[in-house]
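REVIEWER CHECKLIST
Item 1: Sequence provided? yes
Item 2: Single chain? yes
Item 3: Sequence as submitted:
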Amino acid sequence: MLLSIMNAIAPLMWAVLFLGLTISVFSVVFLQGVTNFIHDASASGDSIEDVQIYYNSFPMAFFSLFMAITGGEDWFNIVKPLLDLSPLYGVIFVIYISLMVLGVAAITAIS
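Item 4: Structure as written out by the authors:
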């Protein structure tokens, strides 16, 4: 039993590393878009407030993206403010979800 646990640690660490790096990269991409949107926005306070709920800082963006893949928050609630910025961010979000679901499954299955 101990040998089984020891053999499972390596794939688990690779999956955690993949999750952390991928969430970090996508958090930075979304934060860059949010920052540009807030900088360019004139007086549309409602849109800015909606975006800042999930993307007001790097830790919050990271946490929001983590919630999206673990069921902590519905995907639509997290992507809706991004869709107000640009539909391209919606496409990037779908790529993120697909990469996370398929990537972790592949890492776990290979090992």
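Item 5: Key structural point noted by reviewer: The longest helix spans residues 2-40.
Item 6: Recommendation: ____
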